[in-house]
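Record now logged underneath.
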Amino acid sequence: MPLGLSWSSEMGGKAKVVGVKRVKEGMPEEEWDESMLLPGDIIEGVAPVVADADEDSATFTSAKGRSELSSLLGRLGRQSGSVWVKVRRGDAGFLLRARVAPHRSSTLHRRYTLCADRDDRHVAMLADLTMDRCAELQEMSRKVVNIDFGAFSMKKGIKYDWKKKVGTYLPDRQSTVISSILFMPLPDEHKVEAVMTRSMAWFSAAVSSGAPLIFVNIQTEQIIVSDQTASSSEGQCYISWYKQQSSKPNIEMVQGIRLWFLPGIAEVPVILELNLGETRFGMDIKRTEEGFICINSVTRGLAADRAGVRKLYREASKAGHLVLISRLDGRSLIPSEVSAKGLIHCCDHNDIKERLAAAMEQMEEVHLHIMAWPDQKSSTSIPTTMGPSTLLPPSTRKSRTASSNEPDESS
């Protein structure tokens, strides 16, 4: 079946055709797709599905009205449960595979209709419709299944070397470049606007405190709550306030807010290396109220100072910014979720200390990523930054590097 069907608005006329008036209640609209008969479809002919034969060899029979088509479907249904249906949507004609289904009604006459080949819930209600009415229904169906005007087929698939592209075009192989945090609704928040307000308060507070975050987007997000989640006190908060209809009675849905942001204008990679005999990296860290990990002080002469962190810290203090660590050895330290109790889920402070202690014991390097802020000047002894500003075509990136006074990574 061709994708991206053309839907015409010039289907005027009072001539009657056999078309799909509606889809029987039982299948949600969001589950409809182009492979099913949709409201407004004009039935131009039907043919039985024959084993070991394709649709090109089928012999189609047309019907002048709904009653005639019902009788035809009754005969074909006795031969084969499945049929080919020649359908017209606007200017496009194509074939669909469907199954014959009895149309249960209060009349004494037995009637037949069509249902989706792969889903018994999608039953088409046929009727004698004018061309104008078919055009109206087709427009509704186009919006429901989101079919683009005159788009080309998207069946073609091409191979892509994802591993190579990630390694070449992302500044860091473990970088997602963008971050997000999900806010769950509190028990007394019955509208999504309340959750959105709270998420923006968190973001504004973080920026006001000196976190160099850059707002990207905000969106609603459906969250599934099962019986297992409901067994916890947090899940009980959801269940008690959010009761919605579901085909599975033990599943509930709540609506949260996901806030997308950049961890600074870029991420500065920093490598901490211990010298023989050193027992600490020379930096103290603390957690901010919003859940970020912040460098609180840097000791002169130790690994953090040699890596350039002390210069960053001094410059950030003058500019009113915090020195936030976005990742430690590739693992994110950024808060990821706010629970229904209002608790911010973030990395365990003890886990960070244990990782640093283990690195000191084994004399291993520690790789940090620091969130860069606007107008950051310190760059001596610090490798090339990474972030959205570095996601440029290779030639552009190369020319910019050549014109910069910063040393390259090999120096």
About this structure: Residues 1-12, 230-248, 392-411 have pLDDT under 50 and may be disordered.
